[in-house]
Amino acid sequence: MDKPKYKRVLLKLSGEALAGDRGIGINNEVVNEIAVAIKKVREIGVEVAVVVGGGNFWRGRTSEGMDRTTADYIGMLATVMNAMALQDALENMDVATRVQTAIEMRQIAEPYIRRKAVRHLEKERVVIFGAGTGNPYFSTDTAAALRAAEMESEVILLAKNVDGVYDKDPKVHADAIKFDQLTYLEVIQRELKVMDSTATSLCMDNQIPIKVFKLTTENILRAVYGENIGTTVE
Ligand code: UDP
């Protein structure tokens, strides 16, 4: 096989992706599958940073009646649960990992320190970032864009439950059309549901390409080898 296209990637896993078919909570089988994929990526010498979402437990913006910042902090805590579950699955497969959280919780994980995170990556450890950006009103997609910029990752691999970006929701509209390639501005102007606009702008300003594809072990590997799967935003 050819050489992988990237030396360092940032994998963004939505909370939903960790929940499997049930849509809520953590599905161990799914988490193990993801861990297998990450292990394979490590085995071909690619450095992997992961940002995990929390939507399988909680989303700040949809928690009616609650103070928004409080709701968002609960969401950030949810991402830490996912980070720990993924760490556990990886360590069971003898993949060295570190979890770093944007909100300090030292008994559970390291606090986020950029230089330390880079060092872990260089030492071939998988770094899992929890608690998003540490700020309410942001998303874990924005955390992914931010950490990708800070880690100087060459690409964001956005593994989702759908196989790419469509002009409308493919679950609702049978005639939805999938894009192979998009610019950041097209995503923002057409309000396409790839990432929120804050995250997309951050990627645009820092020229970080985003590859959106359906989460499978094979797809993660194909994306790392630079195959044109799903939709590429750049
Ligand atoms: N969140 C936040 N700041 C961040 C990242 C996340 O407040 O920097 C909160 C927010 O409430 C969000 C929740 O955590 O709804 C879970 O994250 P997200 O919705 O991005 O998870 P995903 O959709 O990827 O599962």
From TrEMBL:
InterPro entries named in the record: Asp/Glu/Uridylate_kinase, Uridylate_kinase, Uridylate_kinase_bac
Complex and partners: Homohexamer.
Keywords: Allosteric enzyme, ATP-binding, Cytoplasm, Kinase, Nucleotide-binding, Pyrimidine biosynthesis, Transferase
Protein name: Uridylate kinase
Domain of life the protein comes from: Bacteria
Pathway in which this enzyme or protein is active: Pyrimidine metabolism; CTP biosynthesis via de novo pathway; UDP from UMP (UMPK route): step 1/1
Keyword presence, Repeat: no
Regulation acting on activity, per entry: Allosterically activated by GTP. Inhibited by UTP.
Catalytic activity: UMP + ATP = UDP + ADP
Function: Catalyzes the reversible phosphorylation of UMP to UDP.
Protein's organism: Intestinibacter bartlettii
EC number, UniProt record: 2.7.4.22
Residues that hold UMP according to the record: 54, 72, 133-140
One GO MF term: UMP kinase activity
Sequence segments annotated as region (Involved in allosteric activation by GTP): 20-25
Positions bound to ATP: 12-15, 55, 59, 161, 166, 169
Domain Aspartate/glutamate/uridylate kinase, residue spans: 7-213
